[in-house]
Amino acid sequence: MDVDQPIAQIAAAMAEPARARILCALMDGRAYTATELAVVADTASSTASAHLSKLTELGLLTKVSQGRHRYFQLADPAVAQVLESMMHLAGVINRVIPVSTPQPLRFARSCYDHLAGTVAVALLQKWLQLGWLTPIKAEASEQQPDYQLTALGQAGLAAIGLDYLAKAHSRRRYACGCLDWSERTAHLGGQLGALLLDFMLQKQWFNRQLDSRELQLTALGRRQLQQQFQLIITAE
Amino acid sequence: MDVDQPIAQIAAAMAEPARARILCALMDGRAYTATELAVVADTASSTASAHLSKLTELGLLTKVSQGRHRYFQLADPAVAQVLESMMHLAGVINRVIPVSTPQPLRFARSCYDHLAGTVAVALLQKWLQLGWLTPIKAEASEQQPDYQLTALGQAGLAAIGLDYLAKAHSRRRYACGCLDWSERTAHLGGQLGALLLDFMLQKQWFNRQLDSRELQLTALGRRQLQQQFQLIITAE
DNA sequence: TCCATCATTCGGCCTTGAGCGAAGTATCAA
DNA sequence: TTGATACTTCGCTCAAGGCCGAATGATGGA
Q1: pTM of whole model > 0.80?
Q2: What pLDDT digit, counting tens, does each position of B153-177 carry?
Q3: What nucleotides of chain D have any atom within 7 angstroms of a protein Cβ?
């Protein structure tokens, strides 16, 4: 009957510091074992286990058993989106902006399955400016605009060898803004955002750091970003 | 340093049902007095007052005094955004209905318009094992993989008289995993899943129970599952 | 001025749930 | 089979915080 009770439930699930740490750690979209998450949560493994059960029962996480390991993962991009919007809000309401973000993490990181950080924000701006993407006008209630890949954009992506139609059958939103918690503006999310990150990792424009969401821009990536997108990376 | 502590704080603020109701009521952007919000929260005014103080201190609400009234309002659109994303998430995860499944219901039931339960999960596994279906590679983040019906699968289905191309024009996903809430793994959903259930009901492999999603495996069905799919049903 | 109304503060009660460690279960490796 | 490792379950303690009613400030109207 109540639209707000589910909200309270979801919020309660995220309200415990230990659970918040777990969820944040999972935001890179990877799966972690219960023990790894117990370390992240900084609790006894029994406590962490209870937390994980709760999150899984609620449907925020999925659990996969492999041998004697249980891998936990965010159940849906929507979970990551809630967390991102909270991070954004945290920035908005803190007069003292916690600049404690390590610099590299602000520059480039993975946000669930797409690129985030300064460079991602700049990239979206550039694509809009180049006319590769145009916003599809959204209802007022929509918080994040959808974008359409223009003919120009299609040509551009095809030119660099990015198969922008891969998985086009998916019911996932194709291209949409995703609020960046360190930059406070949108970067590119959705199917296209995921394809882009895949592409850039495969081409080694970025390297993935172990055990972190941080992405390292390679020299090749720097050149390519400039050459293909006229995006000049000055200093990290 | 901790990027997750603010999240826990914000989430905790929204985690109390009374506060969630208040926040939802404020989502229209208008300002309400403390008494109005006490009614919404369904608590004593003293209790509501405490909630409002907490929300205001955290920075989620702003308070304006006019005469003897205090008007409360969302402090920032970012607050509404968090709530919106939570509502969206609530819709996404609402499929989870855990606990105490009556045994027959776990064995075979209909999930919308396709087969679910233990037998459906086993069937999907078998089809994958037989090479009738192959996963179309999806990102790790996608929770429900799509499947492609192989030539082998087409032959197999044609052999038993299942018209796997019926309604192929539909925009619906053709074959995809559907998370089984009693089994916690995927069974076959999508257009093909629906065709399959239709087929099996028509051939009386299963009988539909009135007023329930439960499906009853017939003796014929048991034989056919074994014969056509090498699927051995041991005991319910 | 005096009273009714709006709002907050205070004190006491009570539920919720987070925490740990130990014991139990499942899986792997030798 | 026998550890060793990975998780979960159980029993228990304890602190946090939600709830109410009564008392106390404010404000506006008669």
Answers
A1: no
A2: 888 898 888 988 877 666 677 887 7
A3: 5-11, 17-23, 25-28
